[in-house]
Amino acid sequence: MTTSTRTEIIGILGGMGPAATADFYAKLVATTPGTSDQDHLRTVIWSDPTIPDRTEALLGDGPDPTPWLLDGSRVLREAGATVIAIPCNTAHAFVPRIADHIGLPIVHMIGEVARHLTTLSPRIRTAGLLATTGTVRAGLYQEWLDRFGIRLVLPDAGNQDHEVMTAIHAVKAGTYDDTTTALLTRAARRLTEQGAQAVVAGCTEIPLGLPADAVDVPLVDPALVLAQALVRRATAENTAA
Amino acid sequence: MTTSTRTEIIGILGGMGPAATADFYAKLVATTPGTSDQDHLRTVIWSDPTIPDRTEALLGDGPDPTPWLLDGSRVLREAGATVIAIPCNTAHAFVPRIADHIGLPIVHMIGEVARHLTTLSPRIRTAGLLATTGTVRAGLYQEWLDRFGIRLVLPDAGNQDHEVMTAIHAVKAGTYDDTTTALLTRAARRLTEQGAQAVVAGCTEIPLGLPADAVDVPLVDPALVLAQALVRRATAENTAA
Predict the structure, then answer these.
(1) Within this chain, do residues B121 and B102 fall inside the same structural domain, yes or no?
(2) Do B37 and A16 touch (CB under 8 A)?
């Protein structure tokens, strides 16, 4: 397998937030098998942190980010991208508004996470979710887990606000520390107490503040699942060529 | 300072290697002051790991990467980039071949490192360099340090090969471990024994294998210096606007 026969160019629609985009690209590189630079996938990243806040838009408090997402997708397509990945859970609420207009397939991070949960052993019947209030309200995970018959448990409204969103804002501000980890650990443990056999770190900022060993059940990192799906896709394409 | 008044779009010509590009973007994000996504700089990254090996080209053993660098720069310009950064020391040997053709300013990483060395206290009269054989042979640091009256010390040919290049290849292969760190630490200490008052980690892979506290003198990370130069430039532009 050498890259010279690969035609896939990964397009990353990022900046939501920028640290999560950097983290996602590092995961994509680490997930790609290979021993030299030339084994890796060509990638183009449009990282636009000025995209209006997705949660605020979903709660009716801010501008619709759809035009920014369309612009970024156009930049990626013109740069030669053959597939789009969006390493931001909340932004997936806007995928139905852009999917038919960008002329490229999107590897759907939340769909990939739902599929990934079905591959875990023992079989996951209940999963917990730590995500932005926007992602929760938009029902993004609810919709996909329903399709696979997995029950979803969530923090109550108070903890969603005081624990999860506080931690996410700390990561976005670059001020996260042990307090952030403690908040997220407590929120995750409440989910396992409600029966969650796995916890989805459903905002790309969360894995930056919550180490995998902080909870007793598998902590699923959607960015890593998305990276693995992209590598599988590029490899399969290569084999087929 | 809000991003809405910023017109700078950072173009990163990357993939050399891809892990170093991810690391550089993470440093750019971490260096940018701000508390929300929207305070960060719009960035477009072209990460093409298929760019032929720069050291091999400089040693006459491989194809000239210049056409790939020109292609990548064109992608970045068409995507709206207003400035180009190249987070690969060795690739700077090809900057004179592309600079006049890409229609955008390049913030020169090696020039920025030389300038940065003159700001350290006590004043640096001798600096050591850990870099690829390509960077060393092309005389990139020699040329810039000469301009600022700083003497350059280098590993001897055997250690350059057996310590430095072995470690760089391990990082590129994703197989670096304590042995890699030991190799680089030994190489860095030899430079300080020759009088180096600072050591330049002059290949973007090196800081991934050599922690800053492994040497007794300042370890200068060109990727971080480049990130800081880009942030200063974007901020100054914003103030002037």
Answers:
(1) no
(2) yes
Question: Is A7 in the same domain as A87?
Answer: yes
Residue A9's domain is classified under what CATH number?
3.40.50.1860
Q: Do A159 and A104 share a structural domain?
A: no
When divided into structural domains, chain A yields a total of 2
8 Å CB contact of B42 and A50: yes
- Whether residue A13 is found in the same domain as residue A85: yes
Shortest distance between the Cα of B151 and any Cα of chain A, in A, equals: 32
Specify whether B116 is located in the same domain as B48.
no
B79-82 LR contacts (CB < 8 Å, sep 24+): B79/A44, B79/A46, B79/A75, B79/A78, B79/A79, B79/B9, B79/B11, B79/B44, B79/B46, B80/A75, B80/B9, B80/B42, B80/B44, B81/B9, B81/B10, B81/B11, B81/B44, B82/B7, B82/B8, B82/B9, B82/B10, B82/B11
pLDDT for res A93: 95
Q: Note whether B214 and B119 are same-domain residues.
A: yes
How far is it, in rounded angstroms, from Cα A200 to Cα A117?
Answer: 9
Over residues A176-195, the pLDDT tens digits come to 899 999 999 999 999 999 99
Nearest chain A alpha carbon to B35: A173
What are the residues whose beta carbons fall under 8 Å from the beta carbon of A57, sequence distance 6 or more?
A63, A64, A65, A134
Rounded to the nearest angstrom, the minimum Cα separation between A4 and chain B is: 7
pLDDT (tens digit per residue) in B130-180: 999 999 999 999 999 999 999 999 999 999 999 999 999 998 888 889 999
Claim to verify: residue B115 and residue B214 sit in the same structural domain: yes
Cβ atoms of A29 and B20 within 8 Å: the answer is: no
Determine the distance in angstroms separating the CA of B122 from the nearest CA of chain A, rounded to an integer: 31
Global ipTM: 0.90
Q: Of the residues A203, A217, A220, A234, which is catalytic?
A: A203
What is the span of the domain harbouring residue A183? 110-221
Say how many CB pairs under 8 Å bridge A and B: 134
Tokens of residue B41, six digits:
């700089």
Positions of B marked catalytic: 88, 203
Q: Which pLDDT band, with edges at 50, 70 and 90, does A239 fall under?
A: low
Beta strands in chain A (DSSP E): 9-14, 42-47, 83-85, 106-107, 126-130, 151-153, 198-201, 219-220
Q: Do B40 and A25 touch (CB under 8 A)?
A: no
Chain A residues in contact with B37 (beta carbon < 8 A): 15-18, 49, 51, 53, 172
Same domain, A215 and A133: yes
- Spatial contact of A80 and B47, defined as CB atoms under 8 Å apart: no
